[in-house]
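Recap for those who missed Tuesday's class. We walked through two folding examples back to back. For each one, the amino acid string is listed first and its predicted structure tokens come directly after. Nothing is annotated here on purpose, so try labeling regions yourself before you check the end of the notes.
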Amino acid sequence: MNLIISNNKKIFDKYSNKNKIKLGNNFYIMAENLKANLLIHKNLFLFGNILGYYDKDNKFKKSSLKRLPKKYFNYKSFVKHSIEGYFVFIKNSNKKIQIKTDSRGIIDLFYNLDKKTLTISNNYYQICNLVHKKTLNNFAILNSLSTVAKRPPLRDSFFNEIKRLDFDQEIIIDRNKFKIIERKVNLPEYKEVSDETSATENYDQNFQEYIEIGNRKKKFLFMSSGWDSSFVLTKLIKKYGRKNVYPVVASLKFSKRSKIYNKFEIEKAKKICKHLDIKLNIIRVDYSYVEKYLNEINLISKKHMLTNSLAYFLHYNLIKQTIAKFGKGDFYSGEISDGSQNFGFSQYITLTDHTNNGYREYGDKMMNYLVGPSFLKKIFTKKYLGDPIYQLLSKKMNIKTEKIKKGVTKKEIIEKFLTSMFLSESRFPLNQKMSNYLNIRNKNNYINLFKQKYLSNLNIKNFKQIYAAYIYLYNKFHWQGSTVRTAYHIANDKGLDFINIFWNKKTMKFLSELPEEYGRGLELKETKYFEKKILRKSIDVDKLNISPHSYLSDTNELNAHIELIFYSPMNKIINKTFKRYRPQVIFDKKYFNHSYINKLLKKFNNKTANGDEADKIYTLFTVCKFFEEINY
């Protein structure tokens, strides 16, 4: 359903009385079939879905929109993030209107303020058509090009005139005056674990509570050969029984010569499912049909401001084909575990110059150490330059780092860490280079906008808060991207729930406060320590060789992006888009590095790009393709 809230007479006059409700200050809520999709309780309006709530003892209770106890149906509960789900919440009292979104920003609320007219919508394409003058948001575009998210972070959209409501923000309309109220955030510090057994039980209990989410009998799981999906699979089987659980994995074919690109992943997933005595269901994703896929996801893309990441095609086919084969059910995933536990450094990709997984995992652990509190403390005390891990990895990865000058405060050093993590392509701490796409003259402007938009409401005092800061910002960057959010929107648009089992309030708190020695530093405890400790009770992980996702690129045979942009039907689609939407024309050369963009386009035309360059070319295409889809 497309929801609009506005005081624009030209908009609300188009809706019949049955499809609009008048609020104060001459504002209306509008939508087709409005009253069937809107829950009204006294002066409160809720649009979306509720999955559950946390009771007075902070225990999670499964619920739904219609079954939520009335005592929790109040503005305070929603503001305090006591309610889990994806929704828009509106309080209409006297002449004051308050509007908030859910605690993770799953439902997008885009808004435009034009003089005395405010328009809010959950449909990006709709609000784009209502805003006639639009200018490109350089910060949002650059971040989309430079990170795996391929989508603007939470407060931004591709246009300056259209913004997105943050889960820490609230729209206040008071006597025709509009303002955005921002919540100040006190980040927790990590805590020492006094009893490892109790901590393990606590971590496990969080999932036992949250696994109850969902209202349908059939439970579909996005399966891989990795730790996270295996962990979730054991929880689903224990709770719902094997006959109600359906693990699904994609068989990926990017080109004729790539054949089945993730054959190792499928082989390992089969072993895991056989060990757990459950059938693995294989869904075919063949990029020879990519034009068909693009046409089918077009409306979802435009509505939710999603670019065409490879994860998007994967999620779409998994959900669509699973429903066609087995009927409707709840979808589950272990996504975001990497970011929340080890900040993306747990996929054996930090050091790839050896095939041994033990070596590659310790490479990840070294990166975890460099982004963690121990190394940050060394920077505070000016003892970091001689650190052997810092010297080793910066040399191996060819990173040129910044030297901290005298007089730089601890807060400024933490901000530099966060800047490296969320703006730099390598995410290496103190990396001087932000993005190849960035015109170096605008580096400071890019960084200052990040600090102004995303750090100004954070109360950061010391190095013990660094893990909480990462997880907090992951909520606004990577987890808002076209690699994570696509599954939510595809499922929701089909009237189904998508449940990311790690993305819950209590698990996020646990991981925000987890100290370095539990798989985040140089000690011998492995990454994702508690998850693996629990999973080992159900699975002999060494025997089954559970590991991160397994592709042909792991053996240096083929690269997905090279296959996609040069040897699949996507090649013609990319060519066509670049001819209509030339990046050198639409992207401001004062902000973007046109020489680098020209270099990429030349390598695309000559078919000479390496794997990393092919990835960059495809990302450039996804942003240009989005502008093509919305007819900008």
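Example two. Treat it independently of the first, because the proteins are unrelated.
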Amino acid sequence: MPRAAFQGGGWLIMKREYKVLTALVVSSLMGFSAMTAEAAVTVTGPITETEITGNSDTGTASGNTLNVTDASSDSTGIRIYGGTVSGGESGDASNNTVNVTNTQVSQAEIYGGQSRLGATNNNTVIFDSSTAAAVYGAYGNTASGNHVESAGTSNFLYGGRSYTNNSGNSVLVTGGSVQYTLSGSQADNGSAADNTVEVRDGTFGVVYGAQGKGVENNSVTMSGGTVSQMISGGYNNQPEGSAVNNKVVMTGGAVTSSGDTESVVPVVSGGWAIYGTADQNSVEISKAVSIAGSVAGGWSYLGDVTNNVVKISSGSVGGIVAGGYTIGKGAEGNTVELSGTADVSGNIYGGYALHQMDNPLTGEAAAGDASQNTVKISDVTVKGEVYGGYTAEGTTSNDATGNAVTIKSGTIEKTVYGGYTADGTASKNTVTINGGTVGVADSTESSDTVFGGYSASGEAVSNVLTVSGGDLIGHVTSGYGKTGASDNTLTMTGGSSTKTVAGYAETGDAVNNTLVFSGGTSAITMAAQSGGSATGNTITITGGNPGTVTGGAGVTGASENTVIISGGVSVHHDLIIDPLKEKILGYGYPAWTETRTIQIMPAELGADAPMVGAAFLTPDQVDIPDEERTVPHAAVY
């Protein structure tokens, strides 16, 4: 029956229907005094009270059901609770359900359960074809297992929110809109773990799997809808804590904010940390997805980024893509994989250490290496540059070590770097090119196309570049160092390039670099080139078309460099070896012609090399003892 309430000097009527479940009566008759009463409350029509609760008549904040249907109010300060614990009282508010349908309460807040000092667990809010200021599955000291389903309109929507820790909260959105924040959970002063958001349609400001002081194992899955600002699987919004193992999976939808398409802030990130580490976070993008800005698997202002992953197989990205991106520290073990029909307008970084900001809390200087990061590309078009690992200039020198790029097919319009450092050593980085196109034929930019390792102010050491196919428009260099290049290796078995160099030192020495050329085409082939001296470098040619061949070229000197021409061509002294000597000594650098230190000689085995090699393999097939494996013995076969 109608219930009257005195408000504002007059009596207002609000229709409420109360239903006490028969379970209470049955349990009393059977002697089960521990059974908790459950109430079902239905509210319709104009709402005149500032607080509506499902437990108003039961006296307990748990196990209640509140139905709000075809209700409305323009008043501010209205709060609707499935179950609530008043003021500073202790107690839990759990297992409540709120169903809101065709209700317009644009200034109201809706809670499945609420308790300032207690737990709020397993509450549910169904919010359909309605409007409200904010919707919470629950808000308590802790919050776990709460759930919201929404096809309505609100400013904020949370699966669960807590003053301390929360976990296992979830949101499913099938339509409608959230103007500002949609989040699986928010921990005001604690950690948030195992929370999820699924978006099928609708429009949103920002979307988080969870927010908190530490965020772990949270996720956002999106198959449709539009986000105007950003998405993050786990967003660590406090000075303490890290972002670990959070993810974003997009199979549809769009993010329309471009942010800064060149650097700094991604609009899609698996995990985000302000001061802490971003570790093992991921982003996966497939099908018809459109992202106007940048994407990062893991992102941190002032912490390390480690073991984060981005995989994109279709869709478009208007900014950069980085497996791991940090403003203040190092990047290690991050990965980017691009395949299929993915279209990326910006640069690609396996790991990116920018070093733009010192830590304001500790005073720690911005510094950190880029190491063991990886980029894998097949079929796609990349309009920017590609870096396995990138480390910018910092307070101290920062190295690029062990980073890798593999290109199977596709088009990269600008330069590829296995590892890049602005002020440290580039070492043990690798690039493998199996096919595709790198560079643009009519580009007005630098002709440099591929670097295994690149140091803008230091040395390049022990980098490896392998080319077995592809069209490389510009220069190909295994190790490029400002002050030195040593022990770098380049192997070319196919493909084409304008210039192929194993080691290049801009001002320092190029030492012990090795180039093996057995296939493909290059206009110029050099084991080493240096603004200083070139010493002990070796180039071996067994096939292909290497063009002009140089063992080592140094501005201040070249010594003990070797060119080896192997295979059948090596026996043709009059056609190849002798003319080659004449050309080099007649037209080469003064350091070669004056000192006569360059050596040109045929391979020792000459045309017999293939036969001897095959003979050495034969004993493995017929089980001949090692002591009998000699060249004369093998020649019998």
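Answers for example two:
Helices lie at 22-29, 573-587, 590-595, 609-622, 631-635.
The two ends are 106 Å apart (CA to CA).
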